[in-house]
Amino acid sequence: MLNPDRNAGLDPHRDFREIYRNVALLDFPWDFTQSLSFALFRTYAVPSVGRLLDESRGFADTQKRYDDTGLLLEVPLREGISSSAGRSAVRRINQMHRAYDISNDDMLYVLSTFVVVPKRWLDDYGWRKLTYDEVVASTNYYRELGRHMNIKNIPESYDAFAVLMDEYEGEHFAYDEGGRRVADLTLNLLTTFYPKPARPAVREFSKALMDDPLLDAFGYRKPSRFVVAASRRAMRARAAVVRLLPPRRKPQGFGDTSRMKSYPDGYEIESLGTFPGGCPVSHLSELEPTSAVSG
């Protein structure tokens, strides 16, 4: 895939949303969907995060939870954080977070995974690595999103985010029954995106891409060295093939993929997510089908 240099002339401190959007939706749509899913998966290994998700019944419908999270994160990227749709999505995220006693440290850690995990994923499995400006832009995008989520003490650079994430995981990763249940439900969901005969292999393949501290935190058995090596070779082979493809011209995000199954006829941003006190808006069946995502 020859890079058409979509971001030439853009400033990563001023045009960070446009740069990050080009990278996430045009150059690496599949990789960003996978890596951001993996970023969220890591957070379940922090007991205060995984236990809360388990106790709040946020994963009672795992597919809907997966879809709602992907859509709420994607709308601000597609439309802009300050757009009407972007503000609605961030407002919905903040409403959910305010319903629970979530520490700023946990919020900051989750934000750090969005910055760090995709870059590391692309370093290992992407058809190319991110440029310096792309790393700066992605960092600035999540710094801006974090400010709109009222997160305090946000790092100023990618390197500072990476240190924060690694240190937080080193201090907090631990086995918790609730976190393990959420991880199992998520892993089970991911296998449903593939034919039934392939699902056991997909489960092992997924674990083969996990690092030892993450496997240990969930109490997962580490796959054999052969499975780990074969899985990672397969990922690098995919990258070699993608590198030869023509540049993508139409943005493709999570909402455009077959993985998003909960809203085939569209959705209302205000109805996404969980509502501990009950949903304050009409159900989708009573509304005209709409979609907050534009191309």
Helix share of residues?
Answer: 55-70%
Strand content: under 5%
How many β strands by DSSP?
0
Q: How does the overall form come out from the CA principal axes?
A: globular
Could you characterize what this model shows?
With 295 residues, this protein is mainly α. The chain has twelve helices and no strands. It has helices at residues 16-27, 29-43, 47-55, 62-79, 84-98, 104-125, 132-148, 158-172, 177-191, 199-208, 212-218, 225-242. Helix 4 packs across helix 5 (84-98). The protein is globular. Residues 278-295 have low confidence and may be disordered.
List the helices and strands and how they pair.
Layout lengths: L15 H12 L1 H15 L3 H9 L6 H18 L4 H15 L5 H22 L6 H17 L9 H15 L4 H15 L7 H10 L3 H7 L6 H18 L53
Helix pairs in contact: 1-2, 1-7, 2-6, 3-9, 4-5, 6-7, 6-8, 9-10, 10-12
Could you name the key traits of this structure?
295 residues; mainly alpha; 0% strand; globular; disordered C terminus
